[in-house]
Amino acid sequence: MHKTIIIGTGPAGLTAAIYLARANMEPLVIEGWQPGGQLTTTTEIENFPGFPEGILGSELMSNMRKQAQRFGATFRTGSVKSVDFSERPYTLDVEGIGELKAESVIISTGASAKYLGIPGEQDNIGRGVSTCATCDGFFFRGKKLIIVGGGDSAMEEAGFLTRFASEVTVVNRREELRASKIMQDRARSNEKISWNLNRTPLEVVAGEQGLQGMKVRNNETGEEELIESDGVFIAIGHTPNTGFLNGQITTDEQGYIIVKPGTSETNIPGVFACGDVQDNKYRQAITAAGSGCMAALDCERYLEEAHSLQTAVKA
């Protein structure tokens, strides 16, 4: 029996672990097959407070993990296959570990960026391919960039990238964009944004000197061409990692966990959510860490109240 189990080891889960461990709650942290989350796939992080010279994503996550361990958090590696929140204590079935029980659970499993699945894409993540304009746009000052996508997020990120890039080319599979009219109008009025619509991405092309661009196919003519670029940003959405919950937690239409406003509380008492798994707007390391702090404090308060209630009943 564990007081608290934290699922996930991104900035949200590790922050929750630090706070709970310092409160002598002895949290058990389940880290999946990619410990540290998405930040371990990035290179240098320059917008996390406290690191004026920047820090590698993997190093930041390693430091946070060591900090949680220092105060008594325990880590085990495995993938949560299913959960049972129908009765307390709650039950987790974890691949590689087995069945675990806990008085409370913090879900910080994050959201996975959707990728195109084309050659050269995965090989160049962190080497010119990115899914976060806010995180990596700064590194492409004065460069030519491609952004793939046709929704509001793609238009917003294209506009953001023009603050740094000399030119941003929007590539979309269809001639029509899914973005709202106001977002399309804003993007089309930006002189730095050019358009390559009705094009299917085929390959991210890189050479010895770095990224060369993206090969695309004209869907109307069938002709293939190379769009030269120093960087490729993928903006086709994210998928929250909530499949293992099997509908036991209330989510929105996209699958993001819905929490009570101003808290980390889900619809199940004693089950909390933090980080990108409940945030489809900001998706930043620092906001994830902040929500991890909230989850830890909410969880600690819940456990104290539950303990007080049990003591009163026994008396």
From TrEMBL:
User: What does the UniProt cofactor note say?
Assistant: Binds 1 FAD per subunit.
Q: Name one GO molecular function term.
A: thioredoxin-disulfide reductase (NADPH) activity
Cited PROSITE patterns: PYRIDINE_REDOX_2
Matching SUPFAM superfamilies, A to Z? FAD/NAD(P)-binding domain
What cofactor does this one take?
Answer: FAD
Q: Could you confirm whether the keyword Transmembrane appears in this record?
A: no
- Pfam families linked to this entry: Pyr_redox_2
Matching Gene3D superfamilies: FAD/NAD(P)-binding domain
Q: GO:BP terms for this protein?
A: removal of superoxide radicals
User: Which reaction is the catalytic activity of this chain?
Assistant: [thioredoxin]-dithiol + NADP(+) = [thioredoxin]-disulfide + NADPH + H(+)
Query: Which keywords are on file for this protein?
Result: Disulfide bond, FAD, Flavoprotein, NADP, Oxidoreductase, Redox-active center
Annotated FAD/NAD(P)-binding domain ranges read 3-292
Gene Ontology CC annotations of this record: cytoplasm
According to its UniProt record, the EC number is 1.8.1.9
Q: Which InterPro entries match?
A: FAD/NAD-bd_sf, FAD/NAD-binding_dom, Ferredoxin-NADP_redctase_2, Pyr_nucl-diS_OxRdtase_2_AS, Thioredox_Rdtase
Q: Which domain of life is it from?
A: Bacteria
Family annotation (PANTHER family): THIOREDOXIN REDUCTASE 1-RELATED-RELATED
Which family does the entry's similarity section mention? Belongs to the class-II pyridine nucleotide-disulfide oxidoreductase family.
Assembly, per entry: Homodimer.
The molecule here is called: Thioredoxin reductase
Q: Organism, per UniProt?
A: Paenibacillus radicis
